[in-house]
Amino acid sequence: MVKAVVGANWGDEGKGKITDMMAENADIVVRFQGGANAGHTIVNNYGKFALHTLPSGVFYGHTTSVIGNGVALNIPILIGELKSITDRNVPMPKLLVSDRAQIVMPYHILFDQYEEERLGKKSFGSTKSGIAPFYSDKYAKIGFQVNELFDEEVLREKVYRVLETKNILLTHLYHKDPLDAEELLRTLHEYRDMIAPYVCDVSAFLYKALKEGKTILLEGQLGTLKDTDHGIYPMVTSSSTLASYGAVGAGLPPYEIKEIVTVCKAYSSAVGAGAFVSEIFGEEADELRRRGGDGGEYGATTGRPRRMGWFDCVASKYGCRMQGATDVAFTVLDVLGYLDEIPVCVGYEIDGEVTTDFPVTTKLEKAKPVLKALPGWKCDIRGIKNYEDLPENCRKYVEFIESQIGFPITMVSNGPGREDIIYRHSPLKQAL
Ligand code: GDP
Fold first, then answer.
1. For residue 5, which phi and psi values (nearest 5 degrees)?
2. Ligand 1 atom, smallest distance to 299 CA
3. 319 touches 239 (CB < 8 A)
4. Are 294 and 40 in contact (CB under 8 A)?
5. Which among 290, 332, 414, 422 is the best mutation to test ligand 1's pocket, defined by most ligand atoms within 8 Å of the CB?
6. Of the four, 110, 153, 179, 361, which is 20 to 30 A from 225 by CA?
7. Rg for the chain (alpha carbons), in Å?
8. Positive or negative, the Cα torsion across 22, 24, 28, 32?
9. From ligand 1's centre to the CA of 20, what distance in Å?
10. Domains within the chain, CATH numbers bracketed
């Protein structure tokens, strides 16, 4: 069967930890979208790791890690990441890369930088990993699939053809030097040799695994609100962040996805520009940022301070619905233990009317948060294993949020480690 771990919010919900935890009972962990533009932080017996491209299952000896066709594959980053974990005594993982995955080209990264520079103040806050130019080329049908690296004739012809237009843009729009086709070919030959040991027909592999009764875990990157279609367009990422896209981005039958664990953080954080209704500022935000996550809320890829906010029931309800959540994993609850009162955003006021339905971006820009303050629990909940042992106000916080979002919170995470998890019987789960 297939399970998915995906985000309900703007990303950084703690999916890495939940995937790492769930990978223990999975045979295969698959990345199906996105690229090295976001990161997961994982804390386990080997130490603390920031993964950008490798699936979170790489720390287990029994799992096969798979890069699906939907991923923006940055080959040097992938190989560097493999080295960085094996250098720290993690055994070499079993890794497979789809022969249909497309490659992030060196010029995608350049174009990402140059375009953000050109836009100046109107930039998207891109991580400059080449993701938007990569997906633009993919859908413009001038991207490079991994299998093309192994056909010299096809590769050479295409490199010359694609560089013709790239060089016009480089020289005329961005006023930079043109790229040399032979040099690019040399780089691609290096990429080919680096990736060759891992390339395979991933969808055929997964199909066979399903027939054999294996458990496959799909690992999402970012969250619903960054989805190209259903997120806060245009301040979104350039691939679909939804569990349903897992079927496409891994090459699986959609009906095989039986469990959709949607990770939702106990407060909000976001990176990059875009509407963020429950955002907080000043000392209030600084304190939450300092205490947040595991060592502060700073981007795993860029180190940028994240924007902070209170929990947003409107965005999270929508986030869970679009994912098709069968289970909600409610994370970093331990961080809120310092607050006397915890504000929660329960509605959006737009043009004088209050709604709990997440609107389209043009309306979202006008939304003001309707806040409700819940009493804090003023203690450290780390180390607690049973839901009933949580302080009453803490349970009330979880249950209030569950009632607002309408999806079952079956896991509560109270620390960054694999074992910091509380399983909960949710009345909503029974109703599903
Ligand atoms: P992801 O991209 O969704 O995997 O999220 P990130 O890894 O960027 O951010 C989650 C951060 O929170 C990481 O530093 C995790 O180690 C940490 N984390 C995850 N769950 C918890 C939790 O329950 N409590 C605390 N304190 N930290 C957590």
1. -120, 115
2. 8
3. no
4. no
5. 332
6. 110
7. 22
8. positive
9. 11
10. 2-101+198-261 (3.40.440.10), 102-196 (1.10.300.10), 263-431 (3.90.170.10)
Residues whose CB falls within 8 Å of the CB of residue 250, separated by 6 or more in sequence, listed in order: 30, 32, 66, 68, 69, 70, 202, 203, 206, 216, 218
**Tens of pLDDT along the chain (432 residues)?**
999 999 999 999 999 889 989 999 999 999 999 998 777 777 888 888 888 899 988 989 899 999 999 999 999 999 999 999 999 999 999 999 999 999 999 999 999 999 989 988 888 777 788 999 999 999 999 999 999 999 999 999 999 999 999 999 999 999 999 999 999 999 999 999 999 999 999 999 999 999 999 999 999 999 999 999 999 999 999 999 999 999 999 999 999 999 999 999 999 999 888 899 999 999 999 999 999 988 889 876 677 899 999 999 999 999 999 999 999 999 999 999 999 999 999 999 999 999 999 999 999 999 999 999 999 999 999 999 999 999 999 999 999 999 999 999 999 999 998 899 999 999 998 776
Cβ neighbors of 216 (< 8 A, separation 6 or more) are: 1, 2, 3, 26, 27, 28, 29, 30, 206, 209, 210, 250, 252, 256
Q: Contact, 253 vs 218, CB < 8 A?
A: no
Ligand 1 centre to CA of 361 (Å) is 27
Of all protein residues, whose CA lies closest to atom 11 belonging to ligand 1?
Answer: 293
